[in-house]
Design a protein that fits this description.
Blueprint (H helix, E strand, L loop, with lengths): L5 E3 L2 E3 L3 E3 L21 E3 L16 E4 L2 E4 L8 H12 L5 E6 L4 H12 L5 E5 L10 H4 L2 H14 L4 E4 L7 H10 L4 E4 L3 E3 L2 E2 L4 E2 L6 E4 L4 H12 L6 E4 L5 H10 L3 E4 L2 H4 L3 H15 L16
Parallel strand pairs: 3-4, 3-16, 4-7, 7-8, 8-9, 9-10, 10-15, 15-16
Antiparallel strand pairs: 1-2, 5-6, 6-14, 11-14, 12-13
Helix pairs in contact: 2-4, 4-5, 6-7, 7-9
This protein binds succinic acid.
Amino acid sequence: MSNLQVNVAGVAFKNPVITASGCYGFGRDYEDMYPLSRLGGVSLKGMTYAERLGNPPPRIAETPSGMLNSVGLQNPGVEHFLAEDLPYLEKQDTVLIANIAGSTVEDYCRLAERLSETSIDMMELNISCPNVKEGGVAFGTSCQSAESIVRQVRKYCKKPLMVKLSPNVTDIVSIAQAVEAQGADAVSLINTLLGMRIDIESRRPILRNNVGGLSGPAVFPVAVRMVWQVANNVKIPVVGMGGIEKWQDAIEMMMAGASAIQMGAALFYDPMAPIKVIEGMDQWLDSHGVKNVADIVGTVRPW
Ligand code: SIN
């Protein structure tokens, strides 16, 4: 067996496979299938300080090799999470990543401060949700706004801080560098790509929010390209995600420069996908004589 352990921003993961925010809830739905302790980590559903009901339905649409979502950060709020979900998650022996969001910088700061007092291992600053009118991606699409929010949240966040980046920008490298300069300990990418579908009979958008975020295998090559570009231009670790469904995809993403990977949309059609990825990676590493999974990070040899 190869050593699957990785370290991201000082946090030790038993393997590089993390379930992506918004696709795994707070973990309980999966406990009958496998112990959560099999996973490297869990990035929890995007959380805000106060409860949010999210956007009106329909908020999911199928697309070729993917899906659009416009959930709108539905979540029960931090106090409910701390009372009802964290006690369960603390017993699962996996890395817990709180994905934090808000409408204002102040919202993000007080949430980061509150979660800093808890057993959460890491925070993932969500400045890339495309489905909310205030906050979300609005903070993540210019260097100035990304820098400003990371600088503020950094003062309140006493845990390793990973910033989740949006692909809906012209130059993701400059955003990654901007957040690195303000003290981000890692970046994760990519969040969803803004998309739209239309029902041709009603001539109405399928999503009630008109537009939504595209994820799934359709976005995988875009994600690999962006991870490769960012990893070559920052010093902090990169966590790669976007359309990973098979172990081969996870290895490819790590070769592009990701120190760990997240899996999202695949969970909806194969809840066992993360376990298959962990097992498949292990076999591939063994058969190629690679002792540590970390040794493949960034090993792509560009022409
Ligand atoms: C959502 O809840 O709308 C999705 C979250 C995200 O894209 O970050």
